[in-house]
């Protein structure tokens, strides 16, 4: 979708005018050959997707194929979209923080016990009995 960006509109118009009619970067919707999402508004794209006979999964896979074909055509190549790292690393004071695996070990009884202990400490600090 163009979001009223004149650069996107001009680039897409030039691409459409210079392309082969049978290329793989035509509209991803089979029920709308030649339709160009890049030249459409957000509401037009939403209506087109709603009227498409395919399931959301089918639309998703067709969109991925379409985007890959566009990347190859635009010279971005077919570079991998897979990250080469397992996860983000946190550096600094939070690097030793415990993760969600440890949180799952807490039971209702252990939480209530800890709350009672804390409540007792607060009362002792206040001088209450």
Automatic annotation (TrEMBL):
Q: What is the lineage of its organism?
A: Eukaryota, Fungi, Dikarya, Basidiomycota, Agaricomycotina
Q: Where do the record's region annotations for Disordered lie? A: 1-109
Protein's name in the database: Uncharacterized protein
- Bias type Basic and acidic residues, positions: 1-15, 65-74
């Amino acid at each position: 979708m163009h979001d009223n960006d004149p650069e996107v509109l001009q680039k897409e118009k030039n691409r459409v005018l210079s392309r082969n009619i049978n290329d793989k970067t035509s509209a991803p919707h089979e029920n709308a050959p030649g339709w160009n999402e890049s030249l459409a508004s957000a509401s037009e794209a939403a209506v087109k997707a709603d009227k498409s006979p395919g399931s959301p999964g089918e639309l998703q896979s067709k969109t991925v194929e379409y985007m890959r074909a566009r990347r190859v055509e635009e010279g971005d190549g077919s570079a991998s979209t897979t990250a080469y790292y397992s996860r983000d690393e946190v550096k600094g004071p939070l690097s030793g923080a415990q993760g969600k695996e440890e949180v799952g070990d807490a039971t209702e009884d252990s939480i209530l016990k800890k709350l009672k202990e804390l409540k007792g400490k607060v009362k002792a600090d206040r001088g209450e009995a």
